[in-house]
Amino acid sequence: MTAAKPNPYAAKPGDYLSNVNNFQLIDSTLREGEQFANAFFDTEKKIEIAKALDDFGVDYIELTSPVASEQSKKDCEAICKLGLKAKILTHIRCHMDDARVAVETGVDGVDVVIGTSKFLRQYSHGKDMNYIAKSAVEVIEFVKSKGIEIRFSSEDSFRSDLVDLLNIYKTVDKIGVNRVGIADTVGCANPRQVYELIRTLKSVVSCDIECHFHNDTGCAIANAYTALEGGARLIDVSVLGIGERNGITPLGGLMARMIVAAPEYVKSKYKLHKIRDIENLVADAVEVNIPFNNPITGFCAFTHKAGIHAKAILANPSTYEILDPQDFGMKRYIHFANRLTGWNAIKARVDQLNLNLTDSQVKEITAKIKKLGDVRALNIDDVDSIIKNFHAEVTTPQLQSARKNKQEDSDVPALNSVPAAKRAKPTV
Amino acid sequence: MTAAKPNPYAAKPGDYLSNVNNFQLIDSTLREGEQFANAFFDTEKKIEIAKALDDFGVDYIELTSPVASEQSKKDCEAICKLGLKAKILTHIRCHMDDARVAVETGVDGVDVVIGTSKFLRQYSHGKDMNYIAKSAVEVIEFVKSKGIEIRFSSEDSFRSDLVDLLNIYKTVDKIGVNRVGIADTVGCANPRQVYELIRTLKSVVSCDIECHFHNDTGCAIANAYTALEGGARLIDVSVLGIGERNGITPLGGLMARMIVAAPEYVKSKYKLHKIRDIENLVADAVEVNIPFNNPITGFCAFTHKAGIHAKAILANPSTYEILDPQDFGMKRYIHFANRLTGWNAIKARVDQLNLNLTDSQVKEITAKIKKLGDVRALNIDDVDSIIKNFHAEVTTPQLQSARKNKQEDSDVPALNSVPAAKRAKPTV
């Protein structure tokens, strides 16, 4: 209710609302992620993923409904018995049949969902808002009676009627749910729309707000961030964003966003250097490659190429980096073997090769490299050969010495190299 | 200046400002994209890409600076001679040496950029704001004197001093630039911050505003959209978003976002069914795979899996789709060969196989499929075998008929199939 004060000189609502420094993660790799086209997790793999997520530090782990299949129920029970720090949730339809099974699995909480858009009311369950409210109250009171957490969420919230939404959320908040959920089930929402809806909802309910954003139009990370600004507290993520269609807010991508806004909070709470391992674990399990342009772990996320960028990065990495690769156990690369290179990048390579050349000599070498780079793609050996040949010419006319340099090639650490294109693990 | 009226009851600035229905695209695959780690485009490939972009309908094509290398200059001249509908731009440092070369290439316009953040002023060019303004005026007047378009952009705008920014933009706007540019060079900006800056800038300059967003923290599409809401007119994109580090706003992803907001404008202006071909062209050229979760063209972007989703999609695709795959020449898939499947999806497959079974029979089959799906990953043949065996048992006890069905397998179009994981083109 803090946002409703009419005094225009008071602090802005955003000053009270933001949870950017106080958010929680609900990882849904083992629920939403199971709905990814390629996903089939056996029990062992589910346990491995759950343990990795727990180690990383997610606050909640959400599992597929125990009524989805017999094995889904057994897996849910098995994961509840692992004794993880993360709370275990399962995700069910707003129906007593599902709720009765869910509460017996040993979960710490139940996430209930029902479609509230006109599309889903007409073509999915066919129920009206009164029916939805009645079912919701019944299921919520039942789950609460078992002493575990309960979240009530609408589905396709951004295409639902605002008054319908606020009515049902107000009702379930009064009964005492732990969280209400806003879900952009089709991935249509945009950030300012998200901010408005969350801020409005925040003035209606006193419980926490959880958000779930699909990525069909590429806004799932930005929407999650903006939801936190508007007062949401919990964000649904999955590893690499896997889920229905092209998925939801990815765990790694959201960490990239959040560390910029709340570095101390994020670094103290989550083991960021584990992101790469967790992504590889899940990518292998569902047989996909890490996208080349993935935040943080994409093969070129910390590769700097244009001469003007390389120059400044060498002087101070903050010039062209908002993320520090070290925070994620990653490394920075300066790509100098190309026609866009500049003499500062080449000078850094000359220093790395432990050679001694003047600036004007380095500029001369750079011109040679750019000339070859105009003809074809270069690799590091090409550049090193040009540098070493030049060095041999200007310093020691004896061929002996030039040869000696060549033999030392293997001793030079390729710290500044760009990795080969991570294109493919050839599998069927 | 429309936004500056003091009447609090007047229409909101946003009502005047939005260019969501009136935006333009500057494709920078051949400039920013050349700065992608893997990119080496020879002349032929550059021309092929430029022609494809022109055919798609981008408004501008931006090319690498002609001073980057000798071949870059020749390629720039060659592309200017193609007679494309798109206007050709080249991108240079704010320096007369660069400008003199650029205006001789035959381009329709020059994009000038200079670092304005304290980081870049200290570690890149080392100049103060007075020097920047002086250089800018000189370069702009020179380019204008040649009768071609000129854009002035700051670099790392979101970490630059606001007053410095507004001062320089006001200055260059008065001289008469065609556009000013805001660049999130390090990918740090968030949507509400973008909206505020663009809206403020809009009240200071009368020329168009162009935006350039890097994707380090996953917000490049959302920031572009929000910039248009705030009054920006032009967005820099590249195919698949390729660029420095993990790149910028991707062409395809932005189209997914924009078609939701401005369907008529987008469909009338851009050949959306060409996105897949253009992405494949560029992906092949830079040796990357299309990310599995790419908007529109990711292999699962239109794949529906959970039973509850499949049911509703079969009744009305709008239930779980904000994008119509047909708009992009793509197809929808219902993934029914898994343990999360439901009887509506299986019934659709039964119909597709031209078999006749009651609902309760289909439910019985669905239970069998879910049971097998609990044990292992399924493929379409597994499901079809279960369906056909069941059908054979309940309708024609003769083995003859069951065998006949099997022979007809190859005639059944696998319309509802999910494609195999598009994991890898095995290359070096």
Structure, explained:
The structure is a homodimer of 428-residue chains. Chain A is an alpha/beta fold. Chain A has 2 domains: 17-286, Aldolase class I (TIM Barrel); 303-393, Recoverin, domain 1 (Orthogonal Bundle). Chain A is 44% helix and 11% strand. Chain A is built from 17 helices and 10 strands. Chain A has helices spanning 13-17, 43-56, 70-80, 96-102, 118-123, 129-145, 162-175, 191-202, 220-230, 251-261, 263-269, 275-286, 307-315, 343-352, 359-375, 380-395, 399-407; strands at residues 24-27, 60-63, 87-93, 109-115, 149-155, 179-184, 208-213, 234-237, 303-304, 333-334. Chain A has an 8-stranded parallel beta barrel, surrounded by 7 helices. A two-stranded parallel ribbon of chain A has the order 9-10. In chain A, helix 2 (43-56) packs parallel to helix 3 (70-80), helix 2 (43-56) packs antiparallel against helix 12 and helix 15 crosses helix 16. The N and C termini of chain A lie far apart (56 Å). Residues 400-428 of chain A have low confidence and may be disordered. Chains A and B meet through helix 3, helix 5, helix 8, helix 9 and helix 10 of A and helix 3, helix 5, helix 8, helix 9 and helix 10 of B. Chains A, B: Its cofactor is Mn(2+); Mg(2+). Chains A, B: InterPro entries: 2-IPM_HCS-like, AIPM/Hcit_synth_CS, Aldolase_TIM, DRE_TIM_HCS_fun_bact, Homocitrate_synth, LeuA/HCS_post-cat, PYR_CT.
Strand and helix layout:
The structure is a homodimer of 428-residue chains.
Chain A: H1 13-17, E1 24-27, H2 43-56, E2 60-63, H3 70-80, E3 87-93, H4 96-102, E4 109-115, H5 118-123, H6 129-145, E5 149-155, H7 162-175, E6 179-184, H8 191-202, E7 208-213, H9 220-230, E8 234-237, H10 251-261, H11 263-269, H12 275-286, E9 303-304, H13 307-315, E10 333-334, H14 343-352, H15 359-375, H16 380-395, H17 399-407
Parallel strand pairs in A: 1-2, 1-8, 2-3, 3-4, 4-5, 5-6, 6-7, 7-8, 9-10
Helix pairs in contact in A: 2-3, 2-12, 6-7, 8-9, 9-10, 10-11, 13-14, 14-15, 15-16, 16-17
